[in-house]
Amino acid sequence: MPGLSEEHPSEFVFCDTNGRAWGCEKTTLKTPVSYVPIDSGENKLITDLVKGAIKGIADGAAQSVRNATINAIPHSELTSIIFFEFDSSALSTQSKLSLLDVLPKVSGKKILIHGYTDSVGSENYNNKLGLNRAKSVKNFFIKAKSNTAEIKTFGNGLCCYLEPNRTEEQRAKNRRVEIFVVN
């Protein structure tokens, strides 16, 4: 697919976080990421887009789907990362203090909260744990009267690690919630 320029080509990475048909690339805090939830009714559009990208075809239909999809992606900015203890969705005292510092940044804004886990446990369990972590942050914002315009929560189990999960220190960095402000 054509990029923005030869110096800055575009790159699309598709990641199946629920079906586990293929894994996610490792992202870091500097990785620009846009999360786009796809409903099952939209699979045909995504399939056509992927096929077109793989074949290098930019016919009118694939191009219009690509443009519509790109235009529909809201820009979001990573505002904060909150870490959790093993197998827990409870906020620590330090996490609550960090969230209090985030309140002015999220006030009046739409925010997305993504909860993650390490690789220990089943996918189903970790999806629920990731979602519960995101909900803990959402509930904190609600109780703190954050005045956010909208809060959406997502649980991501066995995906999107910051570290490889080989040691306890690495796994601890993966047990997190990322808070995004949508611009």
From TrEMBL:
Matches recorded under InterPro entries: Bact_OuterMem_StrucFunc, OmpA-like, OmpA-like_sf
Any one GO CC term of the record: membrane
Superkingdom of the organism of origin: Bacteria
Alphabetized CDD domains for the sequence: OmpA_C-like (cd07185)
SUPFAM superfamilies: OmpA-like (SSF103088)
Pfam families xref list: OmpA (PF00691)
Parts forming coiled coils: none
Cross-referenced PROSITE patterns: OMPA_2
Keywords in alphabetical order: Membrane, Plasmid
Domain OmpA-like: residue ranges: 71-183
PANTHER family found in the cross-reference section: LIPOPROTEIN YIAD-RELATED, STATOR ELEMENT OF FLAGELLAR MOTOR COMPLEX
Protein name: Outer membrane protein A
Native organism: Candidatus Enterovibrio escicola
